[in-house]
Amino acid sequence: MIGMSSSWLATKGYNIRSSVEKIFDLDFDLVELGAAHKYEPKAMQIVKLLKKQHPDKKFTVHTLFPPLEEFFMFNIADTKAFDKNIRALKTLFQVGKIVDAEVIGIHGGYKRELEWGESHFGFTKFKFGEKIDDSEARRNVERVLEVALSLAEKNGIKLCVETDAAGGEDGCMV
C-alpha cells in the first residue's frame, strides 16, 4: 500500500484536517500523520473525527505528532531531552491507538545535540551542536527505546526507528 505524509501538505499551509482530506482526495488509502504541522489545540479531537469519517483508511504516525505548542528537537540520545522525548512518545502512541495505526515511526538518536538549521522546501534541517558522550548517548537511546517498545507492545502497534546516514560520522545515529 502506498501512502503520503501529511507533512508535505503542512509545509504548503494545510492544517491537519485539510491535509488528510487532500491526501484521501488524491486516492491514497494511507496517511502518515507527520510532524511538520503547526500547533492545533484541538488536534486530538480532529484526529478522532478523521478516523470516524474514514474508518476504511489507514494511518501511521510520525515523531512529534500531534504538533506541539512548544516545539523541541526530538533526539533520543540527548539526556537534556529525555523527559520531553518520553512525553512525546506517550502522546504519539495515544494518537496511534485512536487511528488504529499499525506502525509508529520515530527518529533514532544523534550523537550530537541538535540545533535549528536552514529551511528547505518548508522543512527545517537541523545542524549538529555539541557532541554527546558515546556511552551516555547509547544509554539514553536504550532507555527511550525501552519505553517506546513497552508502549508499542501495550498498544499493539509496531515501532519503526528511522535511520539517517546523512550526518556522517559526527552526527550519525546511535
How would you characterize the overall build of this protein?
Residues 21-165 form the Xylose isomerase-like TIM barrel domain. InterPro entries: Xyl_isomerase-like_sf (IPR036237), Xyl_isomerase-like_TIM-brl (IPR013022). The chain is of the alpha/beta class. The chain has 6 helices and 7 strands; from the N terminus they run βααβαβαβββαβα. The strands form 2 sheets. Strands 1-2-3-4-7 form a 5-stranded parallel beta sheet. The chain has a two-stranded antiparallel ribbon with strand order 5-6. Helix content is 40%, strand content 22%. It has one domain: TIM Barrel (Alpha-Beta Barrel), CATH 3.20.20.150.
Helix percentage: 25-40%
- The total of helices stands at 6
The amount of beta strand, in percent, is 15-25%
Distance between the first and last residues' Cα = 30 Å
Structural class: alpha/beta
CATH 2nd-level architecture: Alpha-Beta Barrel
- CATH homology superfamily name: Divalent-metal-dependent TIM barrel enzymes
Might you state the CATH topology name?
TIM Barrel
* Rg measurement, Å: 16 Å
CATH class category name: Alpha Beta
Main sheet summary: 5 strands, parallel
Query: Number of DSSP strands?
Result: 7
Strand order of the largest sheet: 1-2-3-4-7
Q: What is the 3D form?
A: globular
Number of domains: 1
Low-confidence stretches: none
Instruction: State mean pLDDT (0 to 100 scale).
Output: 89
